[in-house]
Specification:
The chain is of the alpha/beta class. It is about 50% helix and about 15% strand. It has 12 helices and 9 strands. The chain has helices at about 15-25, 35-45, 60, 75-85, 105-120, 130-135, 150-160, 175-200, 205-215, 220-230, 240-260, 265-275, and strands at about 5-10, 30-35, 55, 65-70, 95-100, 120-125, 130, 140-145, 160-170. The protein has a 6-stranded parallel β-sheet with strand order 3-2-1-4-5-6, sandwiched between helices. The longest helix has 29 residues, at about 175-200. It is globular, with a radius of gyration of 20 Å.
């Protein structure tokens, strides 16, 4: 285990709550903050064996911390928590490390990096992949943008909940990498949905089809983890369509700024919009299969 540090964690959602738990269990001195007290209280009730100081605002959470970590919703949420009147950067000490695990635009990641530099604070934009399961198991992959010394300062704490930590480049690079990741995931889950419906309509034994194709070039994380649940119409597995649409929107905006066309990502984004329109925005992304009719099924 790394040397215990004072770590403040802001944002106790599906991913953040699990990460905070790993940090406390790794022996770090944990402070928590959540914008909605109900979620904070739920975390405390679910983890009665863990010690955590409760802060009333982000500035209080950051005061005296060695490492401050945010995991919130979007650009506006992050700007408020970090740069707002009671934000982290109002009280964070010189020489501390700031890590952001939110998936946001590269623009705000770069802006925060500049602000951190002026405060002499190490800064890492560090979006994650690995799903809720990875957060629970502490096996996330973290893609990091920032200076090398900042990533090395952040690494001992991130190792408490990550299986892979990759420094991909300068500030904002972590966010760009996450956008590429989400483009891949969206294409994968959309194609998997079509494959499941195709096999169902052909009256095949779905377990046998999975056994036959999952060991070859068609294999993927989505296939291994969502084939069966798609077949059984179960869609309560973490990463919601609402959040995927947010992430794809970031990717499409960044692509436009680069002068790139992303036609597949744009099309699948509209497929997800169809599920939102019928009230499925909080279902996980594999619910994209619901836009495909169950024809000819036994």
């Amino acid at each position: 285990m790394s040397e215990p540090r004072k770590v403040s964690f802001l944002g106790l959602g599906v991913m953040g709550g699990e990460i905070a738990r790993h940090i406390a269990r790794a022996g770090h001195e944990l402070t928590i903050y959540n914008r909605t007290p109900q979620r904070r209280d739920k975390w405390l009730q679910a983890n009665p064996d863990l010690k955590a100081r409760v802060a009333t605002n982000p500035a209080e959470a950051a005061e005296g911390a060695d490492v401050v970590i945010t995991c919130v919703g979007n650009d506006d949420d992050l700007a408020d928590v970090v740069l707002g009147p009671n934000g982290v950067f109002r009280s964070i000490r010189r020489g501390a490390t700031f890590i952001d695990h939110t998936t946001v635009s590269a623009r705000i990641a770069r802006q925060i990096s500049v602000e951190a530099r002026d405060l002499q604070v190490h800064c890492v934009d560090a979006p994650m992949t690995g799903s809720q399961i990875g957060a629970q198991r502490g096996t996330l992959t973290v893609m990091c943008g920032g200076r090398k010394d900042a990533i090395e300062a952040a690494r001992p704490v991130m190792e408490a909940y990550s299986a892979r930590i990759v420094h991909v480049g300068k500030a904002g690079s972590g966010q760009i990498t996450k956008m590429a990741c989400q483009i891949c995931i969206a294409g994968n889950v959309a194609a998997l949905a079509e494959a499941v419906r195709f096999a169902q309509a052909s009256h095949l034994d779905m377990d046998k089809v999975y056994e036959a194709i999952s060991g070859g070039a068609a294999q993927s994380w989505q296939m291994d983890n969502r084939w069966k649940s798609m077949d059984e119409d179960e869609f309560d597995f973490g990463f919601a369509i609402d959040w995927m649409r947010k992430d794809l929107g970031l990717s499409l905006d960044e692509g436009r700024g680069l002068g790139l066309s992303l036609p597949v990502a744009a099309l699948i984004d509209q497929f997800f919009a169809e599920i939102q329109a019928i009230g499925g925005g909080r279902l996980d992304t594999s619910a994209i299969i619901r836009r495909l009719p169950r024809r000819g099924l036994r």
